[in-house]
Design a protein that fits this description.
By secondary structure, the protein is α/β, with parallel strands linked by helices. The protein has three domains: about 180 residues, Alpha-D-Glucose-1,6-Bisphosphate, subunit A, domain 3 (Alpha-D-Glucose-1,6-Bisphosphate, Chain A, domain 3, 3-Layer(aba) Sandwich); about 220 residues, Alpha-D-Glucose-1,6-Bisphosphate, subunit A, domain 3 (Alpha-D-Glucose-1,6-Bisphosphate, Chain A, domain 3); about 130 residues, TATA-Binding Protein. It contains 18 helices and 28 strands. The longest helix has 15 residues. Bound molecules: 6-O-phosphono-alpha-D-glucopyranose and zinc ion. 6-O-phosphono-alpha-D-glucopyranose binds next to loops. Zinc ion (ZN) binds next to loops.
Amino acid sequence: MITTVVTAPISGQKPGTSGLRKKTRVFMGRHYLENFVQSVFDVVDAAGKTFVLGGDGRYFNDRAAQVILRMAAANGASRVIVGQGALLSTPAASHLIRLNKTDGGLILSASHNPGGPDEDFGIKFNMPNGGPAPEAVTEAIFRRTMEIAEYRILEAEDVDLSRPGRSRLGGMQVDVVDPVADYAALMESLFDFAAIRALFASGFRMRMDSMCAVTGPYAKEILENRLGAAPGTVANAVPLPDFGGMHPDPNPTWAHALMAEMSGPDAPDFGAASDGDGDRNMVVGRGIYVSPSDSLAVLAANAHLAPGYRAGLKGVARSMPTSAAADRVAESLGIAQYETPTGWKFFGNLLDAGRATLCGEESFGTGSDHVREKDGLWAVLLWLNILAVRRESVAQILAAHFARFGRNYYSRHDFEAIDSARAEALFAALRAALPGLKGRSFAGLTVEAADDFAYSDPVDGSVSEGQGIRILFGKGARAVFRLSGTGTEGATLRLYLERYAAGPEGLDEDPQQALAPVIRAAHEIADIAGHTGRSAPDVVT
Ligand code: G6P
Ligand code: ZN
């Protein structure tokens, strides 16, 4: 029985950098989830369509999945492929969308934000190519949320999602699938599992911190069962609704247990962590942190060591705030290099058009054309493949990389939960100052150029403006200012800092030391303390 429920628009259902993200209680509010989901189904015209559905297991994931299934059935969808237990990592969902040639998918996650009744929840729609909906589609969904008057839902019992199998919900077919199997097979097709197995068999030790989020089952199956890593290699391997109280964001601040272990006396050879929905990654060597920008560059320089990339890369793409380390690799490989705005969706066209093979962002995202999302475990496996072939430590690989390409010292400073109006004022002042900055000196650095980054997509010609303020000091030194598009509380100011050292001297400094002049100049230019009342960041990556 299909019920048509009368509803009214709820303000604020505008998808951000990565889908609609709000406090869980907001999502649990009357008609909130339903309005948004109906808007998605209206925009993509769900009738007769097949969708993938799954999420990162956070609080409300299971309930939301049941609501979406009943709404999909009521809207005439013909089939939904859903992960067992309503679980799917974001990259695995992207893969299932592509593998089954579906019409898209709904992913339930607030990514790296904490989960629980008082934390965050989110939902996003991915396209038939497996990638996040582009702005034209999210805009259309948002417009629909502002005019919605009713939604359709089937009155039915919950679908049993506890085991794989096929069932019917009204006129719709529901296929509950093992969330790991197809993804693991894809990884096996890209990487030299025999070489990685031999590496582990030789005594190589690793720690994978799944942070009580979705990659636990994937990492256990792939690393421990298929690759022979010691049992217990994967820590925090059971996805929990509140992520065990953790903040599942794989960076040095939030993955502090991993950082401590990797710098301790009995540190394993290699460490990694992933986020709530499994698309982010952090990699760490024994006593050495690999910044995401460096990770992208090392992966680009060594990808040919993995079977899936043996034929070479078509191009490398990075987001604008990501360091230029990967550009140097692309240049030496003689392949195309792209600089996009922040947000994985901007890589979609480049990947679809076959212009880029590897993509990466400073925000702990790395991926390739194997799916249309960033992919945490994929990055870990590519690193493992490289380590298995080179048989050098992470520290040795990084040192050799810097010696060859020079080093882009890099760090991001976050100022979290600042008052939105004050953050806006900081940006307004900075934008107003832009035209006059060239030639002026701050903390001993002279501004060579300054702009507000705009991107015109080389594939579809679309233009995205206002994507971050860049202050270029010359010789590869720069500061970038951006407001986070993923937070749910106040505003987060991100300050991205970079300085290039060509070597051979000066390749081994502490990044915060090496960047000190850029940090001082950035504070002076934007008057961060004056505007926000903060002089020190909350998070340093
Ligand atoms: C999400 C997106 C990434 C993006 C990041 C930026 O994780 O998937 O592509 O880099 O958000 O987050 P921010 O908080 O800086 O807007
Ligand atoms: Zn994520």
